[in-house]
Structure formats: C-alpha cells, structure tokens
Specification:
The chain has 198 residues and is an all-alpha fold. It has twelve helices and no strands.
C-alpha cells in the first residue's frame, strides 16, 4: 500500500529511508538496495537522510556507492561525526585498510571527544596500522575503573592485551567481573566504598 501511495505522491528522502529500512527488517535487501541507490543519485539530500542513505548503502554491501555518497555529503556537512565514521567504515571495507579510515575517525573523535566508541575505534586502527605507541598513549588516558559498558570494556581489554598493557587488561577483567556480580546480586558499592578503593 505504501508503494502505491509513493507512486501517486512522491515520498520525501526521509520517508524513502524509512521504507528501505522496513525492507531490510523484513528480509528484502534487494528492494532496500534499489531505494538506497536512488537516494545516492539525489544531489542535495538533507543531512539526516544522507547519513541514513550512506548507512543503508553500506548495510546492503553497496560499499562504493556508500563511500561516494558519504564523501559528497561530507563536503556539505563537514561536522557530521556519523558521516565521518560511516565513510571510514566504508573505506576500510573496500580494502583500503586502517590507514584510510584513521583520519576520518580522528576527526570524528575531535568532534565528539567524550565518545568512547570513537576513542576505541581510533585505538583499534592505530594498533592495526602498527602504531602501537600512539595506541598505548591513548589507552592510558582512558579510566577503565569508571566504565560501565560491558562491550567497551571487552574491546578495551583486547586492545590493552594486544599492546602489552597486562595490568590494565586485568583491570578491565576485574571491572567486568564487578559489573557481572552487581548484575546478579543486589550489591551496589556506596560512595564511601568507592572512595576507600581509590
């Protein structure tokens, strides 16, 4: 029914992105790919639709089109950290490796300095690019003990181990164990206990 309505009244770019997302969720990636390919041809997509279209193109493995649209969109939306990370992902997936992705990820991290996922992404690419000293310097700036995200702690633990930071990797492991214990029990450390452990 939505497809029929779209033929009678053209859908906005945002609505087309939503329709393509619905196709992806209902296991119809070929239809989603057609919509995303159409969106990639539109010259002046709004910022949100550009991000959604680039993400969609990468999801349907239209890597070249996704990178191309992302780079064109970045000319207009230079400060969009999501576009930067999507293009970085696309460049890496196209076979260019971590060195191609790193400048874009560094720019995204500068725009969102408190975003731990971006910090981890930069560190991972530094390790992959053989820039271990830069990675270690960045790893040491992260306070493992204050983190609550299990996925981030697991990634950090692997990166710390890869960089030979054994004590910090063990601190990640201890923090993960503490989070697990707190999840299965009613125990929560008080502010006094936290101060005593410092």
């Amino acid at each position: 029914m939505l497809e029929t309505a779209a033929m009678l009244i053209p859908l906005s770019a945002a609505a087309q992105c939503r329709l393509a997302e619905c196709y992806l969720r209902t296991q119809r990636p070929d239809l989603a790919a057609c919509i995303y390919a159409h969106l990639a041809e539109i010259e002046n997509l709004d910022e949100v639709s550009a991000v959604d279209a680039v993400r969609g193109l990468l999801r349907v493995d239209a890597i070249g089109d996704g990178v191309d649209l992302g780079l064109r969109s970045l000319r207009r939306f230079r400060e969009n950290h999501r576009l930067l990370t999507l293009v970085a992902d696309g460049l890496e997936r196209s076979g260019l490796g971590p060195q191609a992705a790193l400048p874009l990820l560094l720019q995204a991290e500068r725009l969102q300095p408190k975003n731990l996922q971006y910090k981890i992404a930069v560190i991972k690419r530094l390790v992959e690019a053989g820039r271990r000293l830069d990675a270690v310097r960045r790893l040491r700036a992260i306070e493992v003990e204050s983190l609550d995200c299990v996925a981030s702690l697991q990634r950090l633990r692997l990166l710390l181990a890869a960089c030979g930071e054994v004590a910090r990797a063990e601190a990640c492991h201890a923090r993960l164990a503490q989070i697990e214990y707190e999840a299965v029990s009613s125990y929560r450390p008080t502010d006094e206990e936290d101060a005593d452990n410092s």
